[in-house]
Amino acid sequence: MFFQFLENVLPTWYFNLYPKKGSTPYLVDYRKLPEDEKALILLDNSFDSEDAKLLDAAFQAWHKGIIHKDQRYSLLVQPSNISIQDNYRFVRKYFHSFRIMYCLIGRLGALQNPVTDLLAFWSTRSVKRVKLSDKHHLHRDYHTYNSELLLEQPLVSIIIPTLMRYQYLKDVMEDLAAQDYQNFEIIVVDQTDSPDKAFYDQFNKTNNNIIFQDGKGQWLSRNEAIRQAKGDLLLFFDDDSRVDPNWITEHIKGLDYFNVDISAGVSISKTGGQVPESYQYFRWADQFDSGNALVKRSVFEKIGMFDRQFDKMRMGDGEFGLRAYLNGFTSISHPYAKRLHLKVDSGGLRHMGSWDAFRTAKLLSPKPIPSVLYLYRKYFP
Question: What is the rounded CA–CA span in Å between residue 207 and residue 86?
Fold first, then answer.
């Protein structure tokens, strides 16, 4: 959909693939945008072709949170009009220098014309890297938006799998009790070998459904909760997270404001790398986090449940998000529906005897783990 070289520098990005259904203009035409949105984009006239210039503007628009669902905004270009030099220029603008070298070495190794590539590589050497998140769409009217969906008070089913984390689950339940939106049910799927059933007596039993599951599996448990859920909105949450009192409200409001199928909340990790700047504003979502996402039931009805091939391994939520995208469902990254992910070092997935891409216990454990290969071989070249 964008530049050819994106398949090299971002090989597993959702938007390198074409949806099988739907007509959402993820690639917008700069010329058709309102003036306030045009002002966020730096139109680059140094590209060889008009199509490359417009593709570059569309890439900026995507990353700056310019969101349209009207097909009239779609950009139609001919990929054959994008030169190798324009591809190198594009990669230099937005990616680290080692990515440019990766593209060059890969193309030379694939026996592309070395003269063409080396000349294009050299001629674009003065291109400076651009920071995409410097200016972004603010969607100012979101804050004053009067959501009809919120006024309807739909039942929300909050789905929480847990395993040996009662200390943290207590905080989760207290955060949910403090929500300013109260029409919800909580479905906890407890996979602990010897569950503490008395633990749940301290909470309101009216809206709580506690499932004690013998088998272990994060997707097994979520699928069972979906089957038992009563709401048409399913909110996925983790047992080691904290949220603000407006968490549910923001998810519903975002779903309604953008008229989308999934509100993908952002997750702020207590440990780990720096929080991405893109978490500060709305944009199309290119990931699905099963620890913080609101999904319409109709999505599951049309594309099926979580894939249990991913049980005890990573990437099951990523596969579901990609499958939803390919089937024409829309998802926004929601900066205000955030959670603090504690990433505690006990309980959960690491007690399932799992292959874990991030915490491999043994030197000879497989990397990448089988679920990663399964996902990428299933969907990508």
Answer: 57
Nearest CA-CA partner of 291 in 211, 183, 172, 207: 172
Contacts for 229 with CB less than 8 Å, ≥ 6 apart: 157, 159, 185, 187, 297
Question: Parallel, antiparallel, or unpaired: how do β-strands 233-237 and 292-296 relate?
Answer: antiparallel
Residues 6 or more apart whose CB falls under 8 angstroms from that of 217 comprise 191, 308, 311, 312, 352
Annotate 230-284 with DSSP letters as a single string.
--SEEEEE-TTEEE-TTHHHHHHHHHHHTT-SEEEEEEEESSSSPPPGGGGS-EE
Distances from the Cα of 198 to the Cα of 93, 166, 194, angstroms: 58, 11, 12
Q: At what angle do helices 97-109 and 114-123 cross, to 10 degrees?
A: 170
Q: What pLDDT, on a 0 to 100 scale, did the predictor assign at position 177? A: 94
Return the structure tokens found at 337.
Answer: 């529906």
Q: Which residues pair with 188 in a beta bridge?
A: 160, 210
**What is this structure's pTM?**
0.92
Distance CA 298, CA 304 (A): 10
Confidence grade of residue 351 (pLDDT, cut at 50, 70, 90): low
Per 3-state DSSP, the chain is made up of helix, strand and coil in percentages (nearest 5) of 40, 15, 45
Type of residue numbered 82: I
- The CA distance from 273 to 267, in Å, is 12
d(CA 161, CA 239) in angstroms, rounded, equals 7
Whether the CB-CB separation of 124 and 89 falls below 8 Å is answered with yes
The answer to whether the CB of 259 falls within 8 A of the CB of 242 is no
C-alpha 233: how far from chain center: 18
225-283 confidence digits (pLDDT tens): 999 999 999 999 999 999 999 999 999 999 999 999 999 999 998 666 677 888 999 99
